[in-house]
Amino acid sequence: MPNNPNNTVVSRHVLSVLVEDLDGIISRVSAMFTRRGFSLVSLVSGKTEHPKINRITVVVDADEVNIEQITKQLNKLVPVLKVVRLEEGTMVARALMMVKVAADANNRPQVVDAANIFRARVVDVAPDSVVIEATGTQGKLRALLEVLEPFGIRELISSGQIALNRGPKTMAPSVR
User: Fold this and answer.
1) First to last CA, the chain
2) CATH of range 11-86; options 3.40.50.300, 3.40.47.10, 3.30.70.260, 2.60.300.12
3) What's an example Gene Ontology biological process for this entry (predicted)?
4) Nearest Cα to Cα of residue 62 among 31, 34, 41
C-alpha cells in the first residue's frame, strides 16, 4: 500500500457494520466517507439473519489514525448498531465477478477449462462468447482474469468484498 504525505503507512482495512434497515442508510454512510475525504475502496450492503438489520462491508485504504476516526464516525450515525474491524487471517472474504469472454467453437473448450480450474461457472453461452461467474478472493479473481485475457475480455463486472469472522465469533446486534 502507498504511504501518505505524512509518511504514515496506509493499508487496506475491512469494516463490518450492522445497521438498521432504513431508507437512505447507504447514502449516509457513503456521504460520511465523501465529507471526510477517506479512500473508499468498496461498500456492499446486504440482509442479515435478523429482520430489519443489514450488514454493510466497507473496504477502505487508511492509516491507523484515520481508521480509528472512520470507526468513531460510523458509530455516531444513528442507525448504526455495531462496527467491527475484521483482521486479515481471522476473516473469510469473497467477491463476485462476472466476465464475458470471446469464445467461438474453436476456443470455447479452453475457456471452459480455464473457468473450471478456478472453480468458476459458465452461466451463459452465445455463438461468440461465454459469461463466467466466479467468487473468491481478489487475488483469485485477478488470476482468473490473467488466464482469460488472451481469449479477449468483452465485459467485466465485479462486486465489492463481503466478509465474516472465522470461527464461533459473531456480530450479535445490540438493538437500540
Assistant:
1) 37
2) 3.30.70.260
3) isoleucine biosynthetic process
4) 41
